[in-house]
Specification:
The protein is an all-alpha fold. Helix content is about 80%, strand content about 0%. The protein has twelve helices and no strands.
Length: about 270
């Protein structure tokens, strides 16, 4: 375990050296400063009144959650896309001739090496997402005088979603020693495949009469990681304090992560360098 955390620490230092960490931090800082500037010039009563619906009385908690989601939802998706791009080269760089020879000469097992790199990439994203969401949460909560820590659980949902996608990047990195295929696969699943299978499972199957095709849709849906639900309904429920009402997307995505990382580890251990 000690060796794994040492590799994780070296990956964090690598991210700092390649300005990945600083780049994320600058984007997050700009968003937080922009939020502070905007909310400092907006009157609180006018802000609350802007959410008022005729004939309905919204609770302050609903308004705060809505504001936080309006700011965070698009940024979290953007941060995930940037995180995929910036972390895709960690494994290929490690496998470059010279680097991998040096690492394998150390008293570190290949399993510790791979998982250390994996955890390092996740922690880079966790710290930056936490900085962004915590900053926006503090800004809005201070402005409206309402403090609800349930919104902070979004930090872990976004990080978990990245962890699932990062497992795919690791697998393709080990297989091809290139970052391109892993990035393409992660982007394809996050932007196209997962939303498409979520739609097919909830909407399209109603119009499909063939039991065989409906069964195929169901099987593919359960295999594909549920990044669409994680960043959609589950994030919305957690931010509004409802908790996770359906654990299936979390559990099947976690099983996908473990399976893909298990395959990556098996290939990495057997690979001849």
């Amino acid at each position: 375990m000690k060796n794994t955390w040492l590799i994780t620490w070296f990956t964090l230092r690598e991210a700092m050296a390649r300005k990945v960490f600083i780049f994320f931090a600058i984007i997050s800082l700009l968003v937080i400063l922009g939020s502070i500037l905007i909310f400092s010039v907006i009157d609180t009563e006018s802000l609350i009144g802007g959410f008022a619906v005729e004939g309905q009385e919204l609770q302050l908690a609903q308004i705060v959650t809505a504001l936080e989601l309006i700011i965070i939802s698009p940024l979290a998706g953007l941060c995930l896309l940037l995180a995929i791009f910036s972390s895709a080269s960690f494994i290929p760089n490690m496998l470059e001739k010279g680097n991998i020879d040096l690492l394998l000469s150390k008293p570190v097992s290949r399993t510790q090496l791979l998982w250390g790199k994996y955890f390092g990439g996740i922690i880079v994203v966790l710290l930056n997402i936490a900085f962004l969401i915590l900053g926006v949460w503090l800004t809005i909560s201070f402005k409206l005088g309402y403090w609800d820590i349930s919104f902070l659980s979004v930090i872990f949902v976004v990080t978990f979603t990245f962890a699932v996608l990062y497992s795919i990047i690791v697998l393709f990195g080990v297989l091809t020693k290139s970052s391109i295929f892993g990035m393409m696969a992660a982007y394809f699943i996050f932007i196209i495949l997962s939303p498409l299978m979520n739609f097919a499972n909830t909407q399209l199957k109603v119009f499909v009469e063939s039991e065989t095709i409906r069964g195929i849709i169901k099987v593919i849906y359960y295999i594909v990681p549920k990044t669409s639900e994680l960043m959609g309904q589950i994030t919305l429920n957690l931010a509004s304090g409802k908790g996770i009402t359906d654990f299936q997307p979390v559990l099947t995505s976690f099983l996908f992560l473990i399976l893909v990382m298990g395959i990556s580890n098996f290939i990495f251990v057997k690979k001849d360098f």
